[in-house]
Write a structure and sequence with these properties.
Layout (H helix, E strand, L loop, with lengths): L21 E2 L5 E5 L4 E7 L3 E4 L11 E8 L5 E8 L8 E7 L2 E13 L14 E4 L6 E3 L11 E4 L4 E3 L6 E4 L3 E4 L9 E8 L2 E10 L5 E6 L5 E4 L4 E9 L6 E5 L9 E8 L4 E9 L8 E9 L2 E12 L3 E5 L5 E5 L4 E4 L2 E5 L3 E6 L2 E2 H4 L3 E4 L2 E5 L7 E9 L4 E17 L12 E2 L4 E10 L3 E8 L9 E6 L4 E5 L9 E8 L2 E8 L6 E9 L2 E9 L1 E2 L5 E5 L9 E8 L3 E9 L15 E4 L3 E8 L8 E9 L5 E8 L8 H15 L15
Length: 670
């Protein structure tokens, strides 16, 4: 037999002659009878090789191959396959292909019919196992020796015949029955059956669904293990897997080469899964046994692993030292602060924290121990102090302690700001005044005094008066640029308070003194109004003459110009009954160095001018209106104007006389 394979043959490429090998059989399948001989010739451009049915071997089982060069110029390669005394087992595909390009091939399927053997494979003593894998078709490989054989697929034990529908159940004489989408229905015993010459032949298969899913792998300890040499070690590796699964558990560990460990296994089942245990035990540990212990689990192509680190010490120990020095710093208001020294110990020690010699957790609910650390919540100033950590391993009589000092930094606060604000009033002209500024903070605040003259109040500018460092320091300054008086500034630090004292030897200039207390955390300010007045209390009224009928009377209202404004005179008819005062009476306003004066002249007095006269003013600092009343009683006796004038002049001359010695050295008491 000889023929050239048509261009549409499997494996051929359309471009060029002999792009794929060519067989001398002109069909894709060929049927022989048993004991016949078949010769197949293959020709190609390059060296050739044959792929035979799986059960056959080259040079054996009646298969003979001969290779040669052919063609007019012997430019081609030829290979001849001879099948002598063909048998049913010779049924299958025969492929001729290029040796170095195996995907280029020509194939023919050979059927060797046998009247006593309809199936290629013979039935074994026990059913063959076929595997049903997830996502893949299930094949019952009952190939036949005759392409026209009629074969049925039967399920055991109810002998149900499964009819091929060419959709899910497909019959193929070269492969057998193919189930494209197998379900659990196909788990069990199945048979391929056919009748030949009145005799029924069958071949049976047992389907098996391999399960490889490993649900979980874990050790009895998830944290690193620490122990002493000479102690025993036991690690349990537990594996959970699906029903019908089989797993392999293998250990890798430092002493594996010396087989220092004893490994035991057991299997348990539950309603939903299988549980596999592997127990690794080392009766007496050595230092060389420290390292990584790995439990490796495999089930078919699936594998998982888990591990734990084992540290072996030669003796118990405690190592304790500060992490960031012995003096620690926090700040008041901090949400939490952790005192955490460096501690390494084995076995696990008992840890006790003390504050100032007492158990910390018992002193305050804000203290709690977290592991080896002491955590302070909502840090406050009273948390400052000495903290000690006591570490002990009682069974080995090992003890150590460490003392840490905690400094709680506090932003400065000036105590006078906490006192309710009162009317600052005024200071007498030429008087000696001492101003205090008491501040608290950690570290101790620096005190700075600033000054703003009343004449520059609208600029909101403060100039540095003096700056005294922490500690005890006196700085006496002569005539300051804006304050022509003697000043002495003192700062005293004691009992965690910093007191700034500013002494004005002679009050001559009005303004505002500002005390600033500052440290690394912040600052606080205190403004002290300082208004010099030449009248008592900063606000007064007076009568210049004695009110006599027919005479004149000067009513004088004097108010400190930096504290009061809007001076006015009114007559009040019934002050006890809080009746509204009468209309404004006017007057002459004059301004002095320290005060404003509103003078009201009542001339040609009569009895009807008697009554209560009120001077009203608006207080600039408090925002309140205030007043002073004076009672005028006009008498009938005439007044000797000359004598009264001399008497009042002497009185005012006495009031406004003052000492000119304004730069005396102040004496400061702290």
């Amino acid at each position: 037999m000889s023929c050239v394979v048509s261009p549409g043959k499997e494996g051929q490429e359309p471009k060029g002659k002999f792009s794929t090998p060519v067989l001398d059989l002109n069909s894709q399948q060929h049927v022989l009878k048993a004991n016949q001989t078949l010769t197949i010739n293959c020709r190609g451009r390059w060296e050739l090789s044959w792929a035979l049915p799986g059960s056959l071997a080259r040079g054996q089982d009646g298969v003979k191959l001969e290779e040669s060069r052919c063609g007019k110029q012997r430019q081609h390669y030829c290979s001849q396959l001879t099948l002598s005394s063909a048998q049913a087992r010779h049924t299958g595909p025969y492929r001729c292909r290029y040796r170095h390009q195996t995907h280029k091939q020509a194939a023919v399927y050979i059927y060797v019919t046998d009247s006593q053997r309809p199936f290629v494979e013979e039935q074994a003593a026990i059913p063959d196992v076929v595997y049903m894998k997830e996502g893949k078709p299930l094949v019952f490989p009952c190939r036949v020796t005759n392409p026209n054989s009629i074969v049925s697929l039967v399920k055991f034990p109810d002998s149900r015949v499964l009819t091929p529908d060419q959709k899910n159940i497909v019959w193929n004489s070269r492969r057998g029955f193919v189930i494209r989408s197998p379900t659990f229905f196909y788990i069990g015993m199945f048979s391929c059956k056919t009748t030949l010459n009145g005799i029924t032949h069958s071949i049976s298969y047992l389907t098996h669904r391999p399960v490889n899913k490993i649900m979980d792998v874990y050790l009895n300890s998830t944290s690193p293990l620490q122990t002493l040499q000479g102690n025993s070690l036991t690690i349990n590796c537990t594996v959970t897997a699906e029903w019908n699964s089989r797993v392999s558990i293998r250990w890798d560990y430092p002493g594996k080469a010396n087989t220092s460990a004893i490994i035991s296994k057991r299997i348990m089942s539950s309603k939903s899964h299988m549980v596999f245990y592997s127990l690794l035990s080392i009766p007496k540990l050595r230092l060389s046994d420290r390292g990584l212990y790995i439990c490796q689990v495999s089930s078919g192509p699936v594998s998982r692993a888990t591990n734990v680190s084992v540290t072996v010490y030669d003796h118990p120990f405690i190592r304790l030292k500060p992490r960031q020095g012995a003096v620690l710093q926090a700040h008041a208001g901090q949400k939490s602060y952790r005192l955490s020294p460096k501690l390494r110990a084995f076995p696990a020690p008992k840890v006790i924290w003390l504050k100032d010699g007492k158990v910390a957790a018992e002193q305050c609910s804000r203290y709690h121990v977290d592991g080896n650390s002491l955590v302070i919540r909502d840090v406050a100033e009273e948390d400052a102090g000495k903290y000690s950590i006591l570490v002990g391993i009682q069974e080995h009589r090992l003890y150590k302690n460490l003392t840490l000092w905690l400094v709680v930094n506090v932003s400065p606060r000036i105590g006078e700001n906490a006192v309710s604000v009162q009317d600052p009033g005024s200071v007498p002209r030429g008087s000696r005044q001492t101003l205090h500024c008491t501040s608290h903070g950690v570290p101790p605040p620096h005190i700075a005094w600033l000054w703003q003259p009343a004449s520059e109040h609208h600029t909101r500018r403060y100039d540095l008066l003096s700056l005294a460092d922490a500690g005890l320091m006196r700085v006496c300054v002569g005539v300051y640029a804006y304050v022509p008086v003697s000043i002495c500034v003192c700062v005293c630090v004691c009992f965690l308070q910093t007191v700034g004292v500013l002494t004005v030897a002679e009050a001559l200039v009005s303004g505002v003194y500002r005390c600033i207390a500052s440290n690394s955390l912040g600052r606080d300010e205190l403004d002290i109004p300082f208004y010099v007045t030449d009248i008592h209390g900063g606000f007064s009224v007076s009568q210049k003459e004695e009110p006599r009928e027919g005479g004149d009377l000067h009513l004088t209202c004097v108010a400190n110009k930096h504290l009061y404004t809007n001076l006015s005179w009114q007559q009040v008819t019934a002050p006890a009954e809080a009746t509204p005062p009468g209309p404004f009476l006017g007057g002459e306003l004059s301004s002095g160095e320290f005060s404003d004066t509103l003078s009201l002249l009542l001339n040609n007095l009569t009895a009807g001018d008697s009554g209560t006269y009120r001077c009203s003013a608006h207080h600039l600092l408090t925002g309140q209106n205030t007043h002073l009343d004076t009672q005028v009683t006009v008498t009938g006796e005439p007044l000797n104007h000359s004598d009264h004038h001399n008497d009042m002049s002497n009185q005012y001359r006495h009031i406004y006389t003052h000492t000119q010695n304004c730069f005396t050295q102040p004496h400061i008491v702290i």
